[in-house]
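FORM 7B: Structural annotation worksheet

SECTION A. Query
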Amino acid sequence: MSEIKNTVLADIKACMKSGDKARLGVLRLISSAVKQREVDERVDTDDAAMISILDKMAKQRRESIEQFTSAGRTDLADAEVVELEIIKAYLPEQLSEQEITALIDKAVADTGAASVRDMGKVMGILKPELQGKADMSAVSSLVKSKLG
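SECTION B. Predicted structure
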């Protein structure tokens, strides 16, 4: 069983005892997403799968924050920010822009990518290394500007 999953389950119990309903709700969402994946794929969730699930949930929150902010719904955006912070606590530490740029440069050199058409090769190398450690849409933009 995943170490991250065990931590989430232990934190759910702690939140139930302490009465932290806001945090408990987000942790239950995480637990539900994990159970859904385990049922759909009939597998036990490892840390890599947990990172993938959490990364997807974080991306959904970032997109919601952007949409709510542009619509002037700061109350809803604030709620999403709180959820995002709780989710990020279970993700690995985010890499700095310099570290990401160095990994992009290495991937471009390894693949011999010369144009935007080679972006798939570069992203194929970067995704396993950066999943959960960086915003992949931002990484994609950096790769595109590097190749284009």
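SECTION C. Observations
The longest helix spans residues 47-70. The domain at 3-88 is CATH 1.10.1510.10 (Hypothetical Protein Yqey; Chain: A; domain1).

SECTION D. Sign-off
Analyst initials: ____
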